[in-house]
TrEMBL record:
This is 2-methylisocitrate lyase-like PEP mutase family enzyme. GO terms for molecular function: lyase activity. It holds the Pfam family PEP_mutase. Keywords: Lyase. Gene3D superfamilies: Phosphoenolpyruvate-binding domains (3.20.20.60). InterPro entries: ICL/PEPM, Pyrv/PenolPyrv_kinase-like_dom, Pyrv_kinase-like_dom_sf. It comes from Longispora fulva.
């Protein structure tokens, strides 16, 4: 099997769909995707918990254990590592790797709209790489999502790379010129979050992007489809969304 790191090819980006449970992950793997990620929003919402507040460590580990032996490469969105203590974050990473995960996504955004201090986030990354050297650490900075802090992007990515990050992730980044410049500046694969109104996967590849994540998009689309379908039936309208058969869904757990 091709290693997870080898799938990150600038110009031919890894398209990483993000699942929120066993069925969505296995179904996506069945469509031939080279690797599957998880979405922290989907995992949290499905459990009735808030995202980005370190509330879903147990749920995240449980899902990783369910998926780790499913025959596909798995990268786990672990928010900020569920702790401010680098040693505890490293323990989470070790548990995820033991469950079969080959990658982890660590973010520096805070629930209150701020950012983790650079030194602390770098210490988390270094601790993870020391504990589980083979785990692909995708270091995410939320500078573009927060707005007004874009100027910190380069310095944060530099610090995260120096700490051992295998890849860097800048969600909210969609301007082609900025993406192309960042590709040239960073020394590791650049991950961009796909946006329906932004560049296509092919266009991002032309810019040198090495990984394109779908984040919570699939979960939110699925939830919208369920709500639209229920509303259409209630109003006497037509069901327009396609649906897998009972047998197909049952097969996902076989």
């Amino acid at each position: 099997m091709t290693s997870f790191a080898d799938l990150h090819v600038p110009g031919t980006p890894l398209l990483l769909p993000n699942a929120w449970d066993h069925a969505s992950a296995v179904a996506l793997a069945g469509q031939g995707f080279a690797a599957i990620g998880t979405t922290s929003l989907g995992v949290a919402a499905a459990a009735g918990l808030p995202d980005g507040t370190a509330a879903t460590r147990a749920e995240t580990l449980l899902l990783a254990r369910r998926l780790g032996g499913s025959g596909f490469l798995l990268s786990v969105d672990a928010e900020g590592g569920f702790s401010d203590d680098p040693a505890e974050v490293a323990e989470v990473a070790r548990e995820l790797a033991d469950a079969g995960a080959v990658g982890i996504n660590l973010e520096d955004g805070l629930a209150d709209g701020g950012l983790v201090p650079v030194a602390r986030q770098a210490a988390k990354i270094a601790a993870v790489k020391a504990a589980v050297p083979d785990l692909f650490v995708n270091a995410r900075t939320d500078t573009h999502w927060l707005g007004g802090r874009e100027g910190e992007t380069r310095s944060r990515l530099d610090a995260y790379q120096a700490a051992g990050a295998d890849g860097v992730f800048v969600p909210g980044l969609s301007d082609p010129d900025t993406i192309a410049a960042l590709v040239l500046d960073v020394g590791v694969p650049l991950n961009v979050l796909y946006a329906p109104t932004g560049p296509t996967v092919a266009q991002l590849g032309d810019l040198g992007v090495a990984r394109v994540s779908l984040g919570s998009l699939l979960f939110r689309v699925a939830l919208s489809a369920a709500l639209d379908t229920a509303a259409a039936i209630r109003s006497g309208g037509q069901v327009t969304a396609s649906a897998r058969s009972y047998a197909e869904v049952q097969h996902l757990s076989s």
